[in-house]
Amino acid sequence: MNRQRSFIGFIVAGAIALLVIAIASFYWFFAKNPANLTASTGQPSAAIFVSKLSPVMVSLLTNPERLQALEREGELSKLKTSLFAKSGIDYKEDVQPWLGDEITLAITSLDIDRDRENGQQPGYLLALATKQPEKSREFVELLFSKRALGGANLAVEQYKGVKLIYDNQEVSTEDKIQNPKDARGLANASLSKIQNSLAGAVVGEGFVLFANDPKVLRDAINNVQAPDLNLTSSPEYQKAIKQLPKGGLAVAFLNLPIVAKWQGLELAEQTYNSEIISLALNPKGLLAETSFLTSSEIVSPSSPLSKPVGALQYVPASAGLAISGSNLSNLGNSDLAKLWRQATATIYGSEEDVVSRFAKPLVDVQKRWGINFPEDIFSWVQGEYAIALLPAKEQTTPHWIFAVEKSESVDKGVARLDAIASSNGLSINPLTLSKQKISAWTELTTATKKSDVKEGTSFNIETKVRGLHTTLGNYEIFTSDLETMDEILTTKDNSLIDNPNFKDSIAAIHQPNQGYIYLDWTKSQNLLERQVPILKLVEVLGKPFFDNLRSLTVSSYGTDTGALKGGVFFQLNNS
Question: Which of 59-73, 285-299, 367-381, 464-478 has the highest mean pLDDT?
Fold first, then answer.
């Protein structure tokens, strides 16, 4: 049978339409006359249809046609054509004339019929703003008439003044005969009907609604007529909406405890109750800003910084990853740490598990040196700091740099690290490199080789450098090897802080802030793929994005009570 009636296509259409903004943003930089993209409203109007118990709602707050000017090779046009290809619908003729300035997709309930016997079937709601109600009604009639021609059994219902059209979900005799003695088979057949069903309605003068079950539409109508049921009546949502910046083109709201339940996860720690994300275009890239809402008071790890830390002057521009900020000693008690613990404990079971999965080089360093980062290093870093990884040309393990502002606690910390190195069998030797006095942690090893004398064997003694540190200005600099230390000493005028790409990236982030995590994608891609294999699959799915990604910068900022704010800036290639 022709499966025109599959609701999956419409859910995918909604989801992709919301992601189009991310894909289209790349072409902003190639277009000679970029479109004037501004959100029509500050927040999603379709929130009145969504239950306040919804786990997630995502909205595109501009008409997709405004993205058309951002195209370079007609990707958006191809996308719209392919979405409706199997439905017999012509987007330009049947949809474009009435489609307004909002597309909202929401998970309305975790299980439509609340029956565990037939599995969990979430309720999906797709709300499309309409600027021509009569045209949109014609579209709904056309869509369902084509589904009827494709073999769907339709039903029409008047519900509280709204006309609903939907597929008849009754399990057919044919389905029953396939499994006459198997109750589970009958339940699966019923579930299959639900998954492939579609319900639609035009509500008032503003929205066309589609859902995967008529019950979802009835609930949406109830939510409008009983305002205390919909998302706009939620105190958490109201708090989140106030955090939205101006000019966002896409917005996502997540009810974190319900999201965890939806994904079958147990929220081990519940510091944060909800999250709101806003996506906006920037002349240099794409800026995603987020706020995590909590009922407790926010504790920042350090005082806000109004400019990049001075420690970055000792990080070469060749760095693939750089982390900078101040006061690591209070990091464990901050709300950033609470967010990390909530996420890792919920998804992976423990913080240790996620670190071992995605930060294996750090785990290896701790094991080899017999140290604990929070106790042996973070505890004495009270001033500015910078941590960086530099790609290694002929090895998989990257070179590293750690620069920290000098203080009495730092002097004690260095002495402590020297003691740890000595207890691990390393020697602490002074040496001079580029006229700079350096302390090196070294290890003597022996290597054997065949001697020219048949009866004997000769031994070579090799000195391996396991780490170095020196004082430059008001900073103590640690490196993994001589090559990296030499690069710092000999290329002082080519630091990351003077790099134009880095300057452009941090310029997009709000100030003051708590510092930056800067990732140069082209230099770090191979390393990240080795540590996170699934990233290769993500790259394939998001090829246009990763092909144009130059770098990303992450920061946290803002001191509002009850909201942890942050942003991620994706810098894109402009040539």
Answer: 464-478
- Residue pair 339/273 in contact (Cβ under 8 Å)? The answer is no
SS3 512: coil
71, 33 in Cβ contact below 8 A?
no
- Nearest one of 472, 449, 445, 468 to 459, comparing CA atoms: 449
- Measured CA to CA, the distance from residue 42 to residue 61 in angstroms comes to 8
- Mean pLDDT over 293-316 rounds to 83
- What is the per-residue pLDDT across 136-159, written as a single tens digit (0 to 9) for each? 999 999 989 988 887 888 999 999
Per the rule left: phi > 0, alpha: psi between -120 and 50, beta: everything else, 473 is left
How far is residue 210's CA from residue 223's CA, in Å, rounded to a whole number?
15
Give the three-class secondary structure for 176: helix
Q: 155-158: list long-range contacts, CB under 8 Å, 24+ apart.
A: 155/214, 157/214
Identity at 19, one-letter amino acid code? L
How far is the C-alpha of 196 from the C-alpha of 11, rounded, in Å?
Answer: 11
Residue among 372, 343, 49 nearest 216 (CA): 49
- Cα gap 60→249, rounded to integer Å: 6
Q: Tell me the β-bridge partners of 403.
A: 386, 477
Cis upstream peptide for 533 (omega within 30°): no
37 touches 25 (CB < 8 A) = no
- How far is 288 from 566, CA to CA, in rounded Å? 9
β-pair type (285-293, 321-326): unpaired
Supply φ then ψ for residue 32, to 5 degrees: -70, -35
- Distance, in Å, from the CA atom of 264 to the CA atom of 262, rounded to the nearest integer, reads 5
Euclidean distance between CA atoms 290 and 245, whole angstroms: 10
Query: Using an 8 Å Cβ cutoff, are 12 and 127 in contact?
Result: no
On the 0-12 / 13-18 / 19+ scale of CB atoms within 10 A, 523 is: middle
According to DSSP H, which parts of 316-407 are helical? 335-347, 351-358, 360-369
Q: What is the predicted pLDDT for the residue at 385?
A: 92
Q: What pLDDT score was predicted for residue 10?
A: 45
Task: Kindly report the backbone phi and psi dihedral angles of residue 237, in degrees, each rounded to the nearest multiple of 5, phi listed first.
Answer: -65, -40
